[in-house]
Amino acid sequence: MPPLSDPADEHPDQSAAEGIEAAPIRPPGPHNAPIALSEYDPAWPSMFAREAERIRGALGDRVLVLEHAGSTSVPGLAAKPRIDVILAVPDSAAEDSYVPALERAGYYLAIREPEWFEHRVLKRDDLEVNVHVFTVGASEIDRMLQFRDRLRAHPEDRVAYEQVKRDLAQRTWPRVQDYADAKTEIVRQIVDRASAEREQAPAATEEIA
After folding, report:
1. 209 lies in a domain?
2. Structural domains in the chain (count)
3. Could you report the per-residue pLDDT of 143-168, keeping only the tens digit for each?
4. Residues spanned by the domain of 117
């Protein structure tokens, strides 16, 4: 994946949850079609909440971070209707410590990326959901949430991002990953603005004090 793809997609950082196809356990079939985007659905947060409850029920105190990410987590943003979940556990490489419990809860291990933050992705057969598993403290978690929070707080970035998505979605893509890769530049720009704003915040606080 390119060095920063869309946290809103399967491999959120093209070096992130959308090379998701880099080490598939259940390889995806060819797409060869445009991308179907849905208008924002107010039910998406509730769908995440149900998955979060299911995951917490399966893993208990092994859940160290559990967040709704991706485009379905941003009110007003059109998206592929898939719920992206960020799950941090003590050690995502230790699959035996969480995968069997999640399998009993209805998930299956779809992606294994040991070279990229020991990232794993679990999915369900009965619902469009990606559970992105990282070791707690992985820098990609912060980057994905930073992107989400920037889109939530800055309508101009959300609108710009959605326009790029809509333009690209009309094209025919051999793989969904190719569509995600094409968004790398707009995602990088938004993350850069979010990072710059974060760096300026302490200085502004000091001035006020």
Report:
1. no
2. 1
3. 999 999 999 999 999 999 999 999 99
4. 20-195
